[in-house]
Amino acid sequence: MSEPSEPDYALADPRDLLVGYLDYYRDVVLRKLDGLSEEELRTSRLPSGWTPLQLLKHLTHVERRWLVWGFLAEELADPWADDGPDGQWRVGPEESVHDLLAAFRAQVARSREIVAGAALSDLSALGGRFPADVDAQPSMGWILFHVLQEYARHAGHLDVARELADGATGE
């Protein structure tokens, strides 16, 4: 897998920066998973107990919750599907690495379509994550920034997990 690269230094457009950095961190997450054995992908090396596959599934659901359920207000049967009753991310033994990666890539593609059809100033629809009785609706720009910070934080977590697994460091 090739090294992910940050957006160009001269880039100044806020939309291009948000989208570019979001794609950059999506690539970082995939690169951190690349090369780990199935056992390592399903093993936690951290006191919190999450595994690299659980983190991947969590990020898939983060995109669903914020862009599909949140921005579009589409109903989701189980928006918190990756969270167990104890708040722990879940990946069942029947869920394959291939299927989880495919679900992530499909959700990223859907998210890109949603973002492409909206301006940063567009407000989320009401009725999904944000019921009609809320005081404020987040803008697409706010949602993208929130999702970006989720990725940046979790890429750092995954960086530590990967270093503990096999010593690999860097992007």
UniProtKB/TrEMBL annotation:
Classification via Gene3D superfamilies: dinb family like domain
Alphabetized InterPro entries for the sequence: DinB/YfiT-like, MST-like
Protein name: Putative damage-inducible protein DinB
